[in-house]
Amino acid sequence: MDNKLRHNSQSQEYRSPFGAAPRGTDIRLRIQASRGLFVNRIVLHCHMPNHEDRVFDMARCSGENYEVVLGAEQVGLMWYYFQIYLEDGSMCYYGNNDQQWGGWGKAGDQIPKAFQITVYDPSFAIPEWYSQGLMYQIFVDRFRNGCPEGKILHPKPGAMIHANWDDTPFYIRDAAGAIRRWDFFGGNLEGVIQKLPYLKELGVTILYLNPIFEAPSNHKYDTGNYKNIDPMFGDGETFSRLCREAAEAGIHVMLDGVFSHTGSDSIYFNREGNYPGPGAYQSKESPYYSWYRFTNYPTEYESWWGFGNLPNVDENNPDYQRYIFGSEDSVIRSWMRMGAKGWRLDVVDELPDDFIGKIKTAMRETDPDSVLLGEVWEDASNKVSYGLHRAYLYGYELDSVMNYPFRRILLEMLLGRRTVEDAHRELMSLYENYPRPHFYAAMNLIGSHDVPRILTLLGEGAQPEHLDDNQKETARLSPENLELGKRRLKLAAVFQMTFPGVPCIYYGDEAGMEGYADPYSRGAYPWGKEDPDLMAWYQKMTAFRRSHEALVRGDWIVAAVQENVYGYWRESESEKLLILMNRHSAEDYDIRIPADTLRSKSKRKKSVRDLISGERFMREGDSYLIHVPALEGRILIWN
């Protein structure tokens, strides 16, 4: 039946315009039905953003084609599928494929999975400093100690301070598995300031800092006081100076906001009694008592994933909202006036949409050029949490999301765990579902503090489930695996720096850091011991991105999807680039690119040049034959 019914949601022959649609757009949907089906009638079932189900009769427009035009009248998600009535009285359906990736669909005799159309606010726009930027993520305690002779600023009582910057981080747990003492390396904001020249040379324009507010842990996701910089990192004046000097270097600072919960050891909850009080745990008369949800006061309360040291807050509480973003001296507004240009929202799927929207409003009121980023691990256009489709990408909430699907697809493709075709299909699904501004502003990460180091994964070291903590602490790739990992990482960097979106480098990935998941992925930056080969490669890749407009804002068009080779065009008004990547570890490939795929002024070129190697490839008749070595990439310029 599939060969007799045809609809491709990613082809303008069947759906126009492509992808997400601004509100107010007319969307033409078409399905092709073979004459051999003897169709009597085709209807389109559509679930509208207001949750209304509507049915539209499709008109026969030409030959075997039926079409209907829908108005995208409300922001939100539209879902559609086709029902085909045949002359013999039977009927069938046509809907999305099993993976719900869009593109070619699937016929069947049951109500199918639906195709998605994202409708967004046409006035939505993302500041260019972000959408055209290059991001660098820093876990502050592990980046750089800027104090003379390595002095540790205000060490916390009971803290375990590493005597050697090159130590491997580890957890000190009690018999129940809870962390008994936190380990620290002594990184601080002064150290970040000292390394701004390094970041500028690397091409960084956005500096994303893991939480820097007062908290007992080294990671700071257990906030103790949103109004204070953690004393181990510095103070408000140091932060303001960081923002000023970063701005002078063309770098914008983005803060990490943890607003779904606080720490139990905080001025707000004060379970441990380390603050003057009274906190919510100590008294129902506390000004913070209404922020929390107690089930049996004071010992039983809602907490993040059941961790008692992370009590959840009630984000709908008016006092809490005033404290976080509502008043002029609120957390969001105060730090932005001190220089922050954006915020990343931790576990954004646990924050109500209304709360996120109000943060966005407060930010834009304080700085119309600010940016709000959210932590999302799935396709953010259709993310469901607590039974609700989230409104992240409709134009009222997030400007960007952490593109964990991008990271997963890239890893699985490079490691041979999925076909190149499937990798492309899932990338196309994101391209189809995301509003174009969001797709071009997605935070394209390949490493972060929440996942193992990218080099460890690409080098295919021992599987973590086969190692205990002591083995993970000391594990390093063998020379052979390290070389394999580096070659793959170089190829990943080609992909990351040439794909639409905002590339993000996790501190130390460019230096060749290794490590399994937390805490081993949070080691101290190896100053003076960086891998020179990887460092030079990252400098080269980021320089290409900075110097070629097509890599920042150019259109993205698939060029090659083969067994082990993936390629795409990036084209702007001034230039056209072809990126080709060979994931195979041993085999070279020759890719033939027809000359008629080029713009008319480029068709007569006798040769094209690879920006990476400098090699030239001659035209042979009506095409160019491009040699792509094993585990290498090409960035070919056609102008």
Beta strand count: 38
CATH homologous superfamily annotation of the largest domain? Glycosidases
What's the level 1 CATH class of the largest domain?
Alpha Beta
Give the overall shape. Answer: globular
How much beta, percentage-wise? 25-35%
Could you name the ranges where pLDDT drops below 50 across 5 or more consecutive residues?
none
**Alpha-beta content class:** alpha+beta
Summarize the main sheet: 8 strands, parallel
User: How many separate structural domains?
Assistant: 4
CATH topology of the largest domain, what is it called?
A: TIM Barrel
Helical residue percent?
10-25%
What is the typical, i.e. mean, pLDDT?
96
Roughly how many Å is the radius of gyration? 27 Å
**Annotation field: number of helices:** 15
Judging by the overall fold, what is the CATH architecture of the largest domain?
A: Alpha-Beta Barrel
Strand order of the largest sheet: 28-25-24-21-18-13-30-29
Distance between the termini: 45 Å
